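Sharing in case it's useful to others searching the archive later.

Someone asked me privately for the predicted structure of Putative prolyl oligopeptidase, so I'm posting the question and my answer publicly. Question first, with the sequence:
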Amino acid sequence: MSIDDRPTVAAPDDDPHLWLEEIEDERALAFVAAQNQRTLAAFGGAGFARDRDTLAAIFDRPDNIPSVSRRGGLLYNLWKDAGHPRGLWRRTTLDEFRKPEPQWEILLDIDRLAADEAEDWALNWVSTLPTAHERAILSLSRGGSDAVVLREFDLVTKRFVDGGFTLAEAKGSVDWLDADTLLLSSAYGDGMATPSGYARTVRRWQRGQSIAEAQVIFAAENSASVWVRSGIDRSVTPARVWFSEGLDFFNHHVWLGDETGARTRLDLPIDSWATPHGDWLAIKLRQPWTVGGTTHAADVVLGIRLSAFLAGSRDFVRLFEPGPRRALQGLYWAGGRLVLSILDELRPRFELWTPSLQGWSYQQLPGLPEIATVDVWPLDTDEAESNGDLLANVQDPLTPPSLQLIEGFGAPTILKQAPRTFSADRHVVTRHEAISVDGARIPYTQTGPSELTGEAPVYMSAYGGFGYSIRPAYNAALGKLWLERGGTLVEANIRGGGEFGTAWHDAGRYAGKRLAHDDFAAVAADLVRRGVTVPKRIAAQGGSNGGILITNMLVRYPERFGALFCTIPLIDMRRYTRLLAGASWIAEYGDPDRDEDWGWLQTYSAYHTAEPGQPYPPILIATTRRDDRVHPGHARKMTAKLQAMGYDTWFYEPAAGGHGYGTDNRERASFITLGTRFLARHVGLEME
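And my answer, the predicted structure tokens:
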């Protein structure tokens, strides 16, 4: 390769590495093979194999907590271990699950299925038919991709249904209307996909029909819409069908209808969340809303009777009021009550609201810790079947997760305790704040030795996008490979996330994405200011949206880092909307085909701003070939460009994995180990 500084702002698509976007092209695959061989030769020796096997054994432990959900009174789980790397789909009773070693009924062995059919199958999701749940639609993914093959499965005979519902590979989802009818949201078929590659229509598909005969009952009205979806609400009889058209990632129209199609579009702000149950409706606002002579602030949650709302009433009850650092994280119904998940100065809170004709009553969900990372969700997959039982996961960076059952909205009891997988006797968890370039306070959590040496090997990470909140958790892999060897972990709550509500997200969105990157760099500087470490001993990792973050640390703040690990990344912000699902993210970043938007996008498109002769730290860029969400071309092209400029750049691309690190535990272990050892070598953490 020779140094070539194209593409430029003036000619952004004059790209000498465009050929690497051809995922299965022979020349591109030869590039990938050569890069993989080079990377594994340098970092994949005996130490790598030992650490990979150690992590795989941790991921495969029989005492890990099974993830369960309840359907028709039984708990279902997909279990992976060394003997079943693709997984066993299985079920048991709640009473049996309470036992230390429950007995499971095996429904489907995914490894056997893959071997019998010579396919790289992974099980993505399952849709079962209420209330007996004797039939299911299984989504089978090749190599972990988002696109799936749909097949009907009989849970009584434990076999696929001969002549049953089947659909070739596509992105989408499905709901059972009745035993012989599906509501299908799928991109499969001519004219059925949006520009983002998701479903453009909802079809009513009856047993015995070919997919071409299925009736379209709802379709996107806007040619630029991201997706359409449907959901069947069985909290009333007859069941309602809700339809939504995603105008972009954050804005949508919501319709109420039935199996024949949409009937009434709800008069709601297009960026609000609406959550119905029975004759009640909860609405979470994203922006202020003036209605009925009253202005409701951004991030407020409103409650109202659905029938009254449809009749024109706007007499809302405010169920949640945000604060400067108090923000809603989610809301859902369980057992006829509305559960609100809240972060208050990053501390978890859970509120219950019970509607009645006399009004809404309130209580706190009791018995959960205030200083921990706590997630709470319904045990039942179908809200209409919920008796109010909830599951809670409680953990912190030094305390393994416990799975707790909350029955009747009372105090939780522990169902399962995850094993402790690394030694942390001399470690502490502390919270700090850095000051960003504009004076904003940026929280971060530090986990590591209690005594500061001024030269700690630090592993930093963040996300900063799509309103997604980052909270410190027990990381079995990094605990074993980094903390146990004397390193320090740092997680930063940069803008663009949802930790402090819409304003925090919006501040790191569009042109503000660059500000979110400044936040991360400010945390790195604060670690040095506090005497934790020095720049050459700071490693940083980010994935997906975090790939933009890491490549901007490379080109904008190279002096603050010793090494970087960029995973399943988004990088080329000129072409991202043309690659796979990229067009669905315009509401987060902007549209590069608009001059105004390209004006800010080009400032954090590291593929365009990288220059020769700079003090860039070593970087490993890793993706997966079966990632059909963020195109692997981003990682390939950035690698090629940096290497052509003479930088210390490495690349890794396994064949499977989807938008993740692998489809089985060993693949995940390999991906994580390779990146961790790369960072450790460059920042001086002893790994042998």
